[in-house]
């Protein structure tokens, strides 16, 4: 609903003064015909994004983001951790995990607590510095929506929407404050070099997990269709809090499942069909949520490759949860888990082409190249590229795949994870269950051995 053409770091009042000055100057020097020309929108060449920022932990990543100097920064959710996580307890009065669970592991915070957490996040010096010079936009995910894995049933969504929009400095008269959900769209850049950024709300209207119901809700779907049918843009970036292309759950289940568009296959198909039906070219997805970085690509959805650049988290990362010596095991497991959509190339820090430490997403557009190219990256806390791929804008349209000389190679981005042969698809689960059974058997062997030794000894001792 919100469509703003934003004049970059310059404040509105400065812009008005500049507009007035240039207008009067031009009218003075030239004829009024020339004077009616509007000032040029600045060209957008650098966009950064990120997700999962724990407001209570140090946030060194902002230095790297400020260094990258983006013109636009997109929050992709878990912008704060608003809910309260209770400790993991299998026994005791409040049991939050295990078969005897009697208490939820996450509970929502009060409004006051949410406000104070947002205030803390906003006061972070690195983030404040970014906010002063960069246009900051975004959406939310579950923890800032207010509750882990929550959807449309969550009853604090109205008040939390207000708090989230306050955090983003949304104007008080913005239509976004009156709609149900925080979805929005923006257009940046001069004509013929337009970058449209759409941020979706994947929480407010979402049916429960495993319901195979709606992901966006009717109103947001209608809005999205209008946005995609609307004025053309060279590049359309669609921000979704959860991953669009990667369906990790298909290869980590039955061990564990993640939230993603893949969990709502009908809705995901609808999204792809909408992009195709509206003939929207140049679409690139950005996403967060999973606490690691990954670039994926799907070639068989809309007639051109759909990329999904996942950056997560700015602060919360999978490797941080493990002691340093165990982190290499996490990387090995990433490498061992099968994937069909992940972009694996020479630009990755690790063999798996995932990145499990603090990171942010960086999109650089080279409009001078012919055809224009987009560099999609995930960068580490020092601003160094840990995942990256260059995409020519000309490949992000229906004839792109046909012209591509790598057609044969790109076929591998067409197999869904669920269509992998069982021996490959479940190899992580098989490995983990195998390790658990070996350990269990070793433990059993140890117990039996000890018992036998003791009985033998007791027997022998008696005989003696
Ligand atoms: C956020 O960081 C604080 C301080 O390091 C930590 O105590 C807390 O558990 C973290 N929150 C989450 C959700 O991990
Ligand atoms: C993603 O994986 C889940 C879990 O295996 C499965 O139910 C779902 O159908 C998959 N989605 C797609 C689009 O393949
Ligand atoms: C990708 O583009 C960047 C500039 O945007 C360039 O420095 C780099 O060499 C390119 N990489 C590849 C693999 O083409």
Commentary on this structure:
This is PhoD-like phosphatase metallophosphatase domain-containing protein. Keywords: Membrane, Signal, Transmembrane, Transmembrane helix. The chain crosses the membrane at residues 430-458. The protein is an alpha/beta fold and 464 residues long. 34% of the residues lie in helices and 17% in strands. It has a seven-stranded mixed beta sheet. Helix 3 packs parallel to helix 5 and helix 4 packs parallel to helix 7 (157-167). Residues 247, 249-250, 253, 262-263, 265, 268, 416, 418 line the site of one 2-acetamido-2-deoxy-beta-D-glucopyranose. Residues 247, 249-250, 253, 262-263, 265, 268, 416, 418 line the site of one 2-acetamido-2-deoxy-beta-D-glucopyranose (NAG).
What global shape is seen?
Answer: globular
Number of domains: 3
CATH class term of the largest domain: Alpha Beta
What structural class do helix, strand and pairing data support?
A: alpha/beta
Task: Provide the gyration radius in Å.
Answer: 25 Å
Q: Largest sheet, order of strands side by side?
A: 6-7-8-9-11-10-12
Percentage of residues in strands: 15-25%
Please state the average pLDDT score. 91
The CATH H-level superfamily of the largest domain is Alkaline phosphatase D (PhoD)
How many helices? The count is 15
Bound molecules: 2-acetamido-2-deoxy-beta-D-glucopyranose
Order of helices and strands: HHEHEEEHHEHHEEHEHHEEEHEEEEHHHH
Outline the biggest β-sheet. 7 strands, mixed
Distance between the termini: 91 Å
Briefly note the CATH topology name of the largest domain. Answer: Purple Acid Phosphatase, chain A, domain 2
Q: Give the helix level as a range of percent.
A: 25-40%
Q: Outline the low-pLDDT stretches.
A: 1-11, 25-36
Per DSSP E runs of 2 or more residues, the count of β-strands stands at 15
Which CATH architecture of the largest domain? 4-Layer Sandwich
Protein name: PhoD-like phosphatase metallophosphatase domain-containing protein
InterPro entries: Metallo-depent_PP-like, PhoD-like_MPP, PhoD-like_sf
Keywords: Membrane, Signal, Transmembrane, Transmembrane helix
Pfam families: PhoD
């Amino acid at each position: 609903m919100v469509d703003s053409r934003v004049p970059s770091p310059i404040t509105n009042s400065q812009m008005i003064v500049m507009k007035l000055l240039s207008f009067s100057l031009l009218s003075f020097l030239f004829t009024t015909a020339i004077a009616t020309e509007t000032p040029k929108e600045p060209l957008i060449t650098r966009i950064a994004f990120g997700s999962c920022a724990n407001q209570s932990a140090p946030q060194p990543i902002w230095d790297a983001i400020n260094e990258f100097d983006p013109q636009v920064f997109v929050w992709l959710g878990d912008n704060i951790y608003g809910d309260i996580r209770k400790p993991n307890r299998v026994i005791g009065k409040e049991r939050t995990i295990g078969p005897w669970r009697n208490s939820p592991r996450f509970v929502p915070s009060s409004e006051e607590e949410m406000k104070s957490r947002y205030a803390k996040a906003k006061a972070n010096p690195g983030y404040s510095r970014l906010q002063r010079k960069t246009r900051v936009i975004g959406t939310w995910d579950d923890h800032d929506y207010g509750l882990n894995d929550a959807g449309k049933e969550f009853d604090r969504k109205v008040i939390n929407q207000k708090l989230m929009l306050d955090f983003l400095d949304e104007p008080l008269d913005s239509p976004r404050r009156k709609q149900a959900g925080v979805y929005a769209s923006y257009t940046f850049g001069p004509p013929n070099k337009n970058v449209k950024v759409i941020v979706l709300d994947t929480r407010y209207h979402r049916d429960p997990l495993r319901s195979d119901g709606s992901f966006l809700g009717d109103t947001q779907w209608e809005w999205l269709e209008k946005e995609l049918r609307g004025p053309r843009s060279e590049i359309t970036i669609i921000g979704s809090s959860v991953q669009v292309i990667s369906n990790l759950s298909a290869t980590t289940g039955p061990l564990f499942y993640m939230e993603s568009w893949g969990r709502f296959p009908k809705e995901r198909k609808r999204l792809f069909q909408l992009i195709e039906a509206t003939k929207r070219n140049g679409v690139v997805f950005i996403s967060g949520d999973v606490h690691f970085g990954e670039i994926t690509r799907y070639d068989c959805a809309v007639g051109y490759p759909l990329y999904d650049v996942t950056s997560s988290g700015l602060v919360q990362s999978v490797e941080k949860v493990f002691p340093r010596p165990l982190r290499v095991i996490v990387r090995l497991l990433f490498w061992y888990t099968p994937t069909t959509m992940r972009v694996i190339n020479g630009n990755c820090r690790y063999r798996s082409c995932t990145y499990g430490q603090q990171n942010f997403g960086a999109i650089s557009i080279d409009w001078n190249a012919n055809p224009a190219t987009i560099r999609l990256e995930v960068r580490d806390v020092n601003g160094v590229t840990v995942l990256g791929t260059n995409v020519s804008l000309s490949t992000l349209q229906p004839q792109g795949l046909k012209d591509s000389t790598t057609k044969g190679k790109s076929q591998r981005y067409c197999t869904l994870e669920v269509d992998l042969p069982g021996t490959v698809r479940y190899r992580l689960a098989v490995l983990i269950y195998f390790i658990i059974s070996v350990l269990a058997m070793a433990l059993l062997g140890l117990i039996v051995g000890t018992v036998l030794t003791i009985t033998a000894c007791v027997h022998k001792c008696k005989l003696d």
